[in-house]
Amino acid sequence: PLPPRLFFEAVEQSPVAISITNAQAIILYANAAFEALTGYARAEVIGENESILSSNATPASVYQALWRTIKQKQTWTGTLVNRTKAGGDYLAELAISPVLDQDGAICYFLGIHRDVTRVH
Ligand code: FAD
User: Which residue has a Cα nearest atom 31 of ligand 1?
Assistant: First the structure.
């Protein structure tokens, strides 16, 4: 069997920013690429809502569609305007997917995001 450590190290060292939240979007884990992209050390974001990254430039209707999708246990993909700790805005291409427990209830959300500012 594959050791759990393998999954941890693969996520930890992934070049893509990855965070795991509880069902209320409170950050439980962030990898090294998340720290590099956002400028926040993980100790600063763990316990905070993912909205800490919001630049307030994203319309509420986008967040409503996001939450409607993920609460239906589906993956939401889209682009949000995020702000780094230093105050720089960047376009974040996000995929947010639910992680279900054995009863099929949402227990976590997995967030993967990359800076697509230069692509657009
Ligand atoms: P709010 O006023 O709190 O929310 C705006 C609208 O979103 C509300 O009117 C409501 O319709 C909906 N909403 C918010 N929270 C909930 C909830 N718990 N249940 C149901 N509906 C809700 N946001 C970013 O801006 N950037 C990110 O990179 C980002 N990454 C995320 C990653 C993950 C894994 C998850 C789960 C969420 C992520 N979010 C991200 C969304 C974030 O959690 C906030 O919902 C969003 O930033 C809006 O927060 P707000 O305080 O500006 O607005």
Answer: 50
Domain ranges of the chain: 4-115
40 lines ligand 1 (CB under 6 A): no
Which residues lie across from 101 on neighbouring strands?
A: none
Residue 120 confidence (pLDDT) above 80? no
Question: Which residue has its alpha carbon closest to ligand 1 atom 32?
Answer: 111
The pLDDT tens digits for 78-88 are: 999 999 999 99
In this predicted complex, what is the ipTM?
A: 0.96
| Per-residue pLDDT at 91 exceeds 80 | yes
CA of 106 to the centre of ligand 1 (A): 16
Helix (H) or strand (E) holding 115: strand 106-115
User: Domain 4-115: which topology?
Assistant: Beta-Lactamase (3.30.450)
